[in-house]
Amino acid sequence: MSRVLVTGGAGFIGATVVAALLDAGHEVRVLDSLAPDLHPHGWPAHLDVRAERVVGDVQDLPPGVLDGVDVVSHQAAVVGLGVDLQDLPRYVATNSLGTAALLAAMGRADVGRLVLASSMVVYGEGRYACPQHGQVAPGPRSEPALVAGDFEPPCPVCARALTWAVVPEDAPLDPRSTYAATKVAQEHLAASWARLSGGSAVALRYHNVYGPWMPKDTPYAGVASLWRSALARGERPRVFEDGGQLRDFVHVSDVARANVLALDAGEAGALTAANVASGHPVTVLDVATALSAGSDLEPVVTGEYRLGDVRHVVASPERARDVLGFSAAVLPTEGLTGFGRAPLRGDAPPA
Question: How does 215-244 read in b/e, with b if 16+ C-beta sit within 10 Å?
Answer without folding.
Answer: bbebebbbbbbbbbbbbeeeebbebbbbbe
